[in-house]
Amino acid sequence: MEFTCGKVDRGLKKKKEKTRKPTPQNKRGQLRNIFNTLGVLFLFLFAWVFARSSAMKSSNSRPSRVGRNPFIHELKFTLREKLKIGLMSVTVFPVRLLLVSFFMLLAWPFAFTASLGRSEFVIEPQSWWRRFIDLCLRVIMRAMWFCGGFHWIKVKGERAAPSEAPILTVAPHSSYFDAIPVTMTMCSIVTKLESSSIPVWGTLISYIRPVFVFRSDQDSRRKTVEEIKRRARSGGQWPQIMIFPEGTCTNRSGLILYKAGAFIPGLPVQPVVLRYRNKLDTVTWTWQGPAA
C-alpha cells in the first residue's frame, strides 16, 4: 500500500493586473455602441406607435362587429321621471288597471260563446253572428288598449288578403304588448299550450284558433310545421297566421336569427314591423331588465 501526499497549497500571491488606461479610440467605440442601441430602440418605438395609430384608424373606419346585447334592457330615470312614475302609480295606474280589467272581462263572454261547437280542424264558413262577435271583440280590445295607454296606433301600408299572403311575420318581438296587432286583426298565432290555461286571457287566445305548441311532446316541432302548412295552403279559408319569427323578446337594438317555421311552407309572406314611440322605452320585456 502506498500513499502519495501532495504539497499543501498555502495560496499563491496574486499578480497585480495592469489596468489599461482608456484611449480616445475606445471612448469613441463606446459612444458609438450607445448611440446604435438608442437608435434601434427609437425605431422600435416609432414602428409600434405607427402600427397602433393605423389600427385605430382602421377600426374607426370599419363598423365594429361587437354590437349591443339584444337581451339586456336597462332603464335610467332622472329625478323628474322618478317623481312622475311615483305620482302616476298611485293616481292614474289604478284607474287604468280597473278599466283594462273591465274590458277584458267584457270580451270574455263574447269569445267563449263564439268558441262553442267550433272545430279546430274542419274548415267551415263563418256565420253572420260569429262575424258580428268578431267585430265586437275588435272594438272591445281596441278600447282596452286605449285605456292601457296606447291611444293612437298608426298603421302604414295595407294588409294583404289571406289568399295573397297567408302568413304575416312580425318583428322585432320585444314585449307582451306585441299582442296589439293580433287583437286588431284577429289573426291566428303560434303559442305554447300553457297559454290556453290562463284565466280569461286563455279564452281570448283560444278564440283566434292558434297553433298550439306542445313542449312536452318531442315531435311537437314537426306537428307545428305541418299544421302551419295545412292552414297556409287552404286558399284563404283559414285566418292568416301571425308569426314572430325571432321566437323570443329582444330590446329592438337589432334583429336576431329567425326561426324557419314561417318560411317552410314556401308561400308568400307579408313582413310587419313594430315600433313603439316611447322615449323611455318602458314597454320592452327582456330576460334582464325592469320586467325580467
UniProtKB/TrEMBL annotation:
GO terms for biological process: phospholipid biosynthetic process. Pathway: Lipid metabolism; Phospholipid metabolism. It is found in: Membrane. This is Lysophosphatidylcholine acyltransferase 1. Keywords: Acyltransferase, Lipid biosynthesis, Lipid metabolism, Membrane, Phospholipid biosynthesis, Phospholipid metabolism, Transferase, Transmembrane, Transmembrane helix. GO terms for molecular function: 1-acylglycerophosphocholine O-acyltransferase activity; lysophosphatidic acid acyltransferase activity. GO terms for cellular component: endoplasmic reticulum; membrane. It comes from the Eukaryota. Pfam families: Acyltransferase. The chain crosses the membrane at residues 34-51, 85-112. Residues 167-277 form the Phospholipid/glycerol acyltransferase domain.
